[in-house]
Amino acid sequence: MNNLLIFPVILPLIAGLIFILLPKQIRLQRLLAIITLAIVTGISILIMNQVSANGTQTLQLGGWQAPFGIGLVADMFAILLVLTTSVVAFCCILFSFQTIGRNRENHYFHSLFLFLITGVNGSFLTGDLFNLYVFFEVLLLASYVLVSLGGQKKQLRETMKYVIINILSSAFFLIGIAYMYRVTGTLNLAHISVRIAESGQDGFITTVAILFLLVFGIKAGLFLFYWLPGSYSAPPAAISAVFAALLTKVGIYAIIRMFTLIFYHEPEVTHLFIGILAALTLILGGIGAVGYWDINKILTYNVIIGTGFILAGIAAFTESGTLGSIYYLINDMIVKSLIFLIGGVIIYLTGTSNLKEMSGLIRNHPYLGWMFFIAALSLIGIPPLGGFIGKIFITRGAFEAGYFWLGAIGLIVSLMILYSIFKIFMNAFWGETIISEDEEKGTTKGVMIPIVFLTVLTIGLGLGAELINGYVELAVDGLLNPQMYIDAVFGGNEIP
Amino acid sequence: MKPKANDVILHTVTKLAAIIIFTFSIDLFWAGHHFPGGGFIGGLTTAAGIVLLYLSFDIESIQRNLPIDYKKMAAIGVLIAVFTGLAGMFYGDNFLEQTFGYFDLPVFGETELATAVLFDVGVALAVIGTAITIITSISEDEL
User: Fold this and answer.
1) Which of A3, A17, A20 minimises the CB distance to B89?
2) Which of A66, A128, A398, B37 could form a disulfide with A403 if both were Cys (CB 3.0 to 4.6 A apart)?
3) Which DSSP state fits A68?
């Protein structure tokens, strides 16, 4: 029992509710939001150290022991993601102060943002399949409003698509849960894992596994991503950065959790299938990123490519592959939010997202330009930046598992990322300066702090990999040995 | 000008029915600890009563007589529920841990009092607030 685990979930919730009671106090809301996310970051670091010292931490809510109660489980993998989430959310809300506009702030932007974080943190920490569904709904409901908030024509059109596809996938999620309960008689993730290990993963359970892969694949943008580029480019930069950094990652987390803890018995079927989907996602995402001339579209296609990479590591299902996936996942959350924020600043400055109508920003904004350059290198995976470690381990994992085609596609798509991101860099920053500082539609005042902070983080993740390697290896251990998770949940109690 | 609707019967029945619905919802709420009932359906039936009032009278006159901001009510409800969960932690128990005891009260005699009721109060407020907010916002015809 460790009551600290509940705080990453309820602190944002409490703060968001207080904001509803004080709708006019925007300054106070900003201050409280910053403080809340800072405290959550601190608590996550505390829990991370406890996990690394004492193993996986659990909290059985209301004192009802597993599998009868609903519990929270923080293994190293989950808490690393909670920590990254808090840091990214902190930066994005700092960015939103200058850019989001008073109108959105008056319409509960801060509450919704924190409810979104509640849902994301809850999904990472929960140890119960139905509870996972509930937290998914919490974050989805908040995201529905955040996509449409502002009410531009484009936003409403994309919201319709976004809501419909997500309601559909939630319905499939419920059907999957019902099948799971029918087969195993339990919804506790650890207990399901035990039951399936006892009875063996037969064809029916593998089918249910594919159903779950479909559900989480829609949320993660794995292959079934056709809704994603539109709805992620509709809202303003602060919101789309959070979406790009966090929402697809929750789907990825759920896939990784389900296919390492529960459905790990038939990797030659399920994991190969993940690998094929990851390869298709990489190729299609790469083509999309290369083909467009719109900053928002290029960046959202890069989100899809990121999903493909992370799941390629999981498909390999070896130690290096998993290690690479976790590194890539953490770096991707940081770098995607960074690059979306910079993309947002470019659009604010020029007033357009079309690359052909902008040029030469580096003369007036050298720091912004070079930070974009660093973010781009990290995204592509150039040493010594954060993206390098993830990519090299994923590629090695794929080769070790004998999936040479998967590793090769990954490397080719890296070149496509390189082309697409440098297309932005060359067109937006280099060339003749066509707009002077007076003609710019916005300013960089007040938005540089979160961008600098995230840039430092992605450099630090590469250079300081030695420091966090211990934590990441613990996370890999936890994922490859489901028994550790199960032992922590049942804590020596008899498993019924 | 539209002719005034002749709705004496509707108004009279609504006044009676609303009292019955509210009483029943409170009964459902209290039944919740050991029998079917509780904060959720207690709150829903209360909301049904309020919606009936809205339907037979009009939104303005009901809001004059029941001046409640239902958005805030929902937020306060969830806050109450979360804080009753936190209370258990001050005694070194898990989050959401509940307790109960038997007390000798005047009039009622020996009565079981449970902290879970406080949690249910929060749930009921949240449900009423959310349900009424949804219904009043979709009833506004301007988009």
Assistant:
1) A3
2) A398
3) T
One-letter amino acid at A42 equals G
Task: Give B-chain residues touching A18 at CB under 8 angstroms.
Answer: 75, 79
Whether B2 is in a domain gets the answer: no
Distance separating alpha carbons of residues A399 and A411, to the nearest angstrom: 12
Encoded tokens for A294: 């719109």
CB contact under 8 A, B75 and A13: no
A12-40 pLDDT per residue, tens:
999 999 999 988 888 999 999 999 999 99
From B106's Cα to the closest Cα of chain A, the distance in A is 31
> What number of C-beta contacts closer than 8 Å exist between A and B?
41
| Chain B residue closest in CA terms to A17 | B75
DSSP A172-208: HHHHHHHHHHHHHS--BHHHHHHHHHHH---HHHHHH
CA atoms within 13 A on the CB side of B22: 10
**Whole-number Å distance between alpha carbons of A448 and A277:** 37
Could you list the residue range(s) of the whole structural domain that residue B57 is in?
A: 8-139
Q: Is B115 on the interface with A (CB under 8 A)?
A: no
Q: Which of residues 81-100 of B touch A (CB under 8 A)?
A: 82, 85-86, 89, 93-98
Count of domains for chain B = 1
Give the Å distances, CA to CA, from B99 to A63, A68, B94, B113.
Answer: 11, 18, 12, 9
Which tokens hold the place of B63?
Answer: 């809001």
**Checking DSSP bridges between strand A57-60 and strand B109-114, what pairing results, if any?**
unpaired
The tens digit of pLDDT for each residue in B40-50 reads 999 999 999 99
Supply the pTM of this predicted model. 0.92
Cα torsion through A193, A196, A200, A201, rounded to 10:
-90
With beta carbons under 8 A apart, name residues in chain B contacting A61: 94-96
Q: Residue B1 — pLDDT band, cuts 50, 70, 90? A: low
Report d(CA A463, CA A457) in Å as an integer. 10
Are A293 and A356 spatial neighbours (Cβ–Cβ below 8 Å)? yes
The pair of three-digit structure tokens given for residue A457, joined into one six-digit string: 């983080």
